[in-house]
Each structure stands twice: as C-alpha cells, then as structure tokens.
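Before we proceed, please read the two lines closing this message. Tell me what the token row says about the fold.
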Amino acid sequence: MKVDDPPSTGLPCSSNFEVRQTAFAGRAVFASHAIPAGTTIWRSEDLSLSVLLREYRREVCGYCFRYENGRDLALRDKNVGYAFCSGMCRAGWMKDNGEVGVQAWSAVEKWTKGRKNEDSDMVEPDLPRPTPKEIIQGWEGVAGQAVLIQIAREGEREKPRRDGEEGGVRKQHKRALQKALQQPIAADVMSFCVNGILWRHHHAAEWNRVLALAIDETPYHSADELQTFINTYLTLLAILPFPLLYLVTPETMFTLSSRDSHNSFGIRSLEDEGSEFFGFGCWPGASYFNHSCNPNVEKQRQGRAWTFTAGRDIARGDELCITYLSGEERKLGREERMARLRNWGFDCNCDRCAMA
C-alpha cells in the first residue's frame, strides 16, 4: 500500500495567529499580536471527514446537527437514511452531496437495511494496536479480491460475454463481489468512509488540507477495527456508483483514518454542556489548536462550523490553546482528565496539570 505524500501547503492562514512547529507537541498555533478577551480568533467551516452515528440519525439534523432533545425530526429521507430540521438544511445537504452523493447514500442505505449492525459492539480495552507493518499487510492481503470485484463491476457496464471469453466476468469475479456484500456491517465506519470519499470527490483542490494534518501511523485500535475498515473498503468497491470508484483505494481509506485519528472534534448537544455525543468530524483549519486544561481560547460549535474566541487577554507570541474535554470533563481531577486525554495519544503537561 502506497501512503499519500504530505503536501507543502494546506495550513490555515490568519492575521491573528501563525502555525509553528514545537519541540514536543508537534505544530501549534501562536498569537501574531495581542488579542483582547472576547475577540473572535478563527471560524472553521471546512468540515471534511465526519460521521453522524446511526442511532441518532432520526433525532439529529444530517446537515446542521440540530438536536430536538430526543424527538424524531419530521423531515426524513428514507432513501439516504438522514433526517433534517428544515427544508433549507435538506437542500444544503443535497447540494453538498450532489447527484453522485445521493446515489452513494442510497446504495449504502439499501445495503444497510435489514442487516445486523456491529458498530455498537464493545471494544476490549488494552488490546494491542496493529503495527504499521501489520496494517500494510492487512491492506495488501485483499488486493487480489479487490481486483476481482473491480472486474465484476466493470462487467456491469459491458455487454455480457460468454464465460471464458477474454475480458468477460467469470464466476470467480462474481464470487468475490458476493463475498464483499456478505461482510458484517459496520454502518458508522461506512458512513465515515463515504463522507470522506465524497468530500474528496467534490473538493479535490482542497484535499491538501487533509493531507497536511498530523498523521497517526497506527490509527486502528485493534486488529478487529483494522479488519472492519478493510471489509468496508471491499463493500464500497461493490456498491458505490462508478464515478466514485477511482477514490475507493487502500490509500484513501488509510488517509481518512490516519488524519482523523488525532484531529477530530466531537459533535455534541449544545444546550447541556455536550452530554449527548452524536458523532465526530474533522475541520482541518481548526485542527492546529493544541489542548490545555486551562485554555485561553474557547470553542463553540454553531451548526456545521466552529468559532474560536479568546477566553481572556492573550499576549503576542502566546500559544493559543483550547480544551479537548467536554463540559463536565473539565471539572475532573488530574488523573481522570489524563485518562480521557490519552484517547488523543498524549499525556497532558499544561500548567494546570503541572500544578496538581
């Protein structure tokens, strides 16, 4: 498997801050000038990789993520599997996804209905993560089946030929296709991958924003999770519309996982300190703010966008930090905060943790 090369551009550009490399925390955001409390520092609208958990699809708007406190939304599109809070949001979703996106979501929803969903299965803690070598071996191990599926799909567009003729679809190709369609379902993983593929298809010139993000070389929490993504790849080869198949590759699938891993934001309810977790998304322009348990920048989701505001006066050259913790988590003790922050792959060394 060839890994996509990182680009030389793609960093956010603002008069309020600059992105610099740090000695211990990768890249970080630093104030370009003194910033008074209450100043809007950055607004990020570039949602690229995301998933709205299937169990919330009836209650949360598929476009603006508005939550009706557990009530089903009246405007539902059963063909694509999403509900919307208004006709405007539905129109926005349709515009963003385009005709090929509607075809893709319809194909996924048709395949998903009536199948046992394994997304909710609990993952055992402390399982070893697959190593980079094991990840490459996993993806390369299905290369042969992927070729057979691709030949079978191409046969759908060609005039049928007699079995055995050069270029014709044979039983082995059909078997590979059927095997992919019989894989266990992981609806949320599939939704995440489809969202990423569609975003890349519609925003090819902006893909460098995703590639510029910090890479997690071991993004899968277990061998089972790696296999789930591999199975999803094969299934998408079998069901997505033809205009998207050029992006259904191990490289794309791994890039989605490796960039999302440490760069995503939770999509939560807005009225109750984020007690309801609906899903997650990656806004590349917002992904360079590092964490502090005593942040000087406050973040707030407004529909599909994030706004970042100075929580107190900030001096020129200070690092601009947000918190990765939700409302109630911010009140936890040091050890409990540290345990949650390890989900992002680091031990916190902020001033608040150092003084505890």
User: Anything to note?
Assistant: The longest strand covers residues 277-282. Residues 17-43+290-355 form a domain with the Beta-clip-like fold (CATH 2.170.270.10). The CA atoms of residues 263 and 271 lie 24 Å apart. The chain has ten helices and twelve strands.
